[in-house]
Amino acid sequence: MSEPMEGFDPAIAQFRLERIQLVNWGPFHGHHVIDVHRDGTLVTGPSGAGKSTLLDAMICVLMDRSVTFNAAAHDDAVGSKERTFYSYARGKSGSRRDATRGSRAIYLREGTTWSAVALTWRNKAAKTVTACRAMHLTRAAASDSDITHALMLAEGDLDVRDLEPAAAQAMRQDAVRRALPQVSTFGNEYGRYVARLSALVGIRGQDGDTGKAIRLLHKAQSSKGVHNIDETFKRFVLDDSKVATRRDAAVEQFLSLRNGYEEMVRARDQITLLAPLPDLWEAYRAAGEQARELRVLVREEDGTSPLEAYVLGLHKDLLGARARLEQAEHRRQVAAHEDARGRYEELAARITTLEEQRRSTGGDLLGAIDAELRSAQAELAPLAERRTRLARWCASVDVPLPTDAAGLAATQAQAREHTDGTAGDDPDVRADLHSRIAAAEEAKRAIRALREELRSYEGRRSNIPAAALAVRATIAEGVGLEEDELPFVGELLDVAGDEEQWRTAAERLLGGFGLGLLVDQAHYPAVARFVDAHDLRARVRYTPVRTEAPVEAAAPAPGTMAAKVVVADSPFAPWLRDQLVRRFSHRCVQDATEMAVLREAVTVHGQVKHRAGLHEKDDRADVRRDKVIGFDNADTVRELHETLSAREGDLVELERARDDADAAREHARTRREAWAGIAATAWADVDTTHVESQIAAATRRREAALAGDGRSSLETEIGTLVEARDEANHQARTAREAATRAEKAWGQRVSEEDRIGARLDQVSPPEGERLDTLTALARQCDPEPTLESVARLRTAMQQALETRVQAADSAGGTARAAIGSLLADFLRTWPDEAGTLTRDVETAPAYLELLAGLQADDLPAALAQWRQLMHSINTMGLTSLIQTLRDERLVIDDRIGPVNDVLRTVPFGHDGYLQIVTGDVEPPASRAFKAEIDAILEHTVGNDLDDAELEGRFRRIAALMDRLDSTDAADREWQRDVLDVKRHVRISAEEHRRGEDAARVYEGVGATSGGEGQELIAATLGAALRYQLGGIEEVPMFGSVMVDEGFVKSDPDVTRRAIRALKSFGFQLLIAAPIDKYQSMEREFGSAYLIEADPAAGRAHARGFAIGFGPAQEVPAGG
Question: Which UniProt keywords are present, listed alphabetically (predicted)?
């Protein structure tokens, strides 16, 4: 037997196993005692007798309940799932087929039972420690979780049979203490138990990790499953890394700075994004206010709008002014009549006097001539009038006025060609006129309907048709609810701001769904009763929804309609999101041909493919215009204004066409009447030649008479006076007629003024700003209005107001769209704000409050403070982190060095020794990580970075910290690559043989024979155990090592070398090996036990042998 290492004195401190006690453990039924020799004990026996069961009992005292049993039987060292605390405590011996329940386990102990394992260690200083795990099972216990565990320690010996009374009380701690007063009890508290046990027997890891040392002892037990030197040393020899702690410190240090930075950047970015909002909101608000004020001017109240009232007032004022003018005109004309009448009477008297004078001097001839002239002139008047009418008719039909009977006959021949003998208008002309009149009237009706519809939409925010809103109002009033408690689906849905191109498709697909009402389940009975009991004269659709238990909707698939629609915050929102995903996950496609390969889809133009294969596209005019989806109706109002403006433009054209048709009809009628008049005219009725000749002859005779008798001056005077008299008479008559007309007009004006005044008394005239607006508008439309233009002025003002409303709506719509886009961008950038903020444009004041708060927080000062802090903290923990990485790489070599010093003294193989070597295999990710840290830290000490460089370095650090703190699978693998220094090396073994220059390299046992591999593992595990349990320079205080199925593949020489190698590290060995290995191993141990089993009874026991240089002598087993 090899001598222990120099400096090892087993007589002083090292604890070695002395005794094993078993009660009801596996096939070891009842109480069993196995005494272990200080120089080691060999346990042997046939396969399946219970060797591994014995070693599992020992390890269960050292490890917690997560221990894996019978690990040596599996090369992967994962242990057997069939061997558990429960199977060992029950004593499972096999299984048998049951006719009703299939395979059924066979147990030695099926009722209430207990089990215990105790290990006693002793050193040469007479110190004894006993550790025990006891278990209690009731009859109903069926698995490990049903077992009551009791852990205990004694600083001396104990007999586990003394636990029998405690077992009767289910191993309660008080019962254990009464049964064994000298023990310390721990119940199932493994942590306290193992800490105390480790302190007593010296199981301490090299870095203070007792658990690692115990796990290595367990690994040694199943050394048959150890194949890889690299894994073994990294797991059990190398220190646990402190890099993770440094990483956490660096991340934690950076986190506070980052949080401050992110809050400031967030605030800065929010201020930047929201900066246009105040002006946009003011523009939107002002435009809305302007549009509302302007609409108020044309909105009828009590049948009259402010515009109408203003025009009525203006009309009344104009009527009053005109009436005053006409009253003055009447007075002037009465005065003129009286003046002319006086002059007429004065002139008539003078003429009478002169005529008497003329008669007295022979003036009868002239009298006769004058009478002839008067008769001829009287005859000429109707002829001239008819000739003038004929001239007008000829001008109407573009023919010259006839000068003789032949010319008239020729013209009448033309007239017969242009008349067909029928009276009245041409049917085609009349039909065309009537058609154009009807079109203009229909346009007027459409405009009135549009204005009414526009007024309806302007008075609400919903896109739902007015008829449906009226039905909802009736239901809400009938059941005592507010209307917003019965929302239409369409009021809670809208197309996302960046998906506006899909609005038409959304309306086609969701329009019917949008017209349904949603009813909270709590209100469902009342709504159902009301709807059922009343004739609502409309189609009603509603859906009860359980809002108190909202459904969890799946996320909509990208590219589907469900993903392009947003849902307003409301109690119905979860249900709506679920319905969208369930019913409207139609794929949105630009090209209709893509629908062929899709189950359900919708094109951008609104063609829908349903799940059953039905395709549908509804392009009816009313469908194209009707909209039901949207959080508000601003777009609908704007479109209605645009439509109204277009319809009014159409009306102007239709009225022009109607007037043109009417003018054409009138022109045709005038020509028809002219031709008829020409045809019916006789030449004698229009021939003035004969009468004009008579008048000329009489005139010449009169002139001759005057010249012959010298009375020319008297006649001249009389003639002058007659003309003056006639003129005065004419003036008097004209003034009288004008006075009559003025009086009549004045009366009419006064009556009309009174009528309009009566209307004005019934309305409120515009005042203040409204009056100012209408006055300015009137001046703009007609600077000098008159009674004749006042009607046109009203139309012009109406059109001007509508133009202004349209402009205000357009400005408001533009501002609203910009605000909506801004709010959508805000919530898309900071979705966490969606809990308190929404996309609704009307919630912009909340954003303005946020902006004001951000601006009040003095962001520039906070950023300056952060930059100052960044200047003062220039490493962010990265220096410590990278230094630790590099230090730990050096520590690996430091840990391997002492191990190699010991391995050089331990023979291996054929006159050689082992050395553990390390090779660098650092991953590229680790090298890049270190290079990035070096680059970040470069030029930071003693240098003042400007703000841009500082923020740039901060972003580089942030990128590293994000990956270092990430839980993403890829980042977690990256973290292991860059932070786990053990991954940066590969550990292998080299065999150095005397006389050979080249060393033999072993990565594991794969390239060796079975025996050589086990010798290699024995040496490396021995070194690892010595390092963990006592270090290289110190003798381990705990010296007991168990090996199951040890060295089963080795020949006798290799087996002895492997055992001696382990003992050279100062360990007491308890090895379980097959019986055919007994003779090759017995000389290395102080005692041996044979495990014998009785398969029929399912029981086993251990029989001891004393080992000497001669044949083994049988000795009685202890117990």
Answer: ATP-binding, DNA damage, DNA repair, Nucleotide-binding, SOS response
pLDDT at 11 over 60: no
Are 196 and 335 in a shared domain? no
Higher per-residue pLDDT: 719 or 324: 324
Q: Is the pLDDT of residue 960 over 70?
A: yes
Same domain, 224 and 338: no
Q: From edge to edge, which strands make up the β-sheet containing 1000-1002? A: 912-920, 985-993, 1000-1002
The percent of residues in the chain predicted with pLDDT above 90, rounded, is 29
| CATH number assigned to the domain comprising residue 22 | 3.40.1140
The answer to whether residues 813 and 638 touch, using CB atoms and an 8 Å cutoff, is: yes
What residue type is 748 in one-letter code? Answer: Q
Q: Which tokens sit at 117?
A: 């394992």
Confidence of residue 973 (pLDDT cuts 50, 70, 90): very high
At which of 728, 747, 763 does a domain end? 763
Measured distance between the N- and C-terminal CA atoms of the chain, rounded to whole angstroms: 29
Question: Quick check: helix, strand or coil at residue 7?
Answer: coil
Tell which residue, 1104, 1055, 1112, has the closest CA to residue 1084.
1055
Q: Which of 683-687, 775-779, 1043-1047 has the lowest mean pLDDT?
A: 1043-1047
Instruction: Establish if 1004 belongs to a structural domain.
Output: no
Amino acid (one-letter) located at 731: Q
**pLDDT score recorded for residue 966:** 87
Strands 1068-1074 and 41-45: parallel
Do 384 and 528 lie in one domain? The reply is no
**34 beta partners:** 20
Please give the structure tokens belonging to residue 1106. Answer: 């004393």
The three-point CA angle 101-83-173 to 5° equals 105
Same structural domain, 397 and 337 = no
Q: Which of 535, 534, 553, 542 is nearest to 485 (CA)?
A: 542
DSSP code of residue 488: B
Q: Which of 993, 1016, 1047 is the last residue of a domain?
A: 993
From CA 265, how far away is CA 272, in angstroms rounded?
10
Q: Which residues contact 920 (CB under 8 A, 6 or more apart)?
A: 984, 985
- CA–CA distances in Å: residue 223 to residues 169, 238, 664, 794, 903: 39, 19, 118, 107, 19
Q: Tell me whether residue 727 is in a domain.
A: yes
Got the DSSP string for 974-1006? Answer: HHHHHH-GGGGEEEEEEEEETT-SSPEEESBST
Q: What is the pLDDT of residue 1004?
A: 58
Same domain, 384 and 337: no
Neighbouring CB atoms inside 10 A of 1031's CB total 13
Q: Which residue has the tokens 């205000």?
A: 808
Confidence of residue 190 (pLDDT cuts 50, 70, 90): very high
User: How many Cα atoms within 13 Å fall on the side-chain side of residue 177?
Assistant: 7
Q: How many Cα neighbours within 13 Å face the side chain of 1007?
A: 10
565-470-304 Cα angle (round to 5): 110
> Exposed, middle or buried, 380 (CB in 10 Å: 0-12/13-18/19+)?
middle
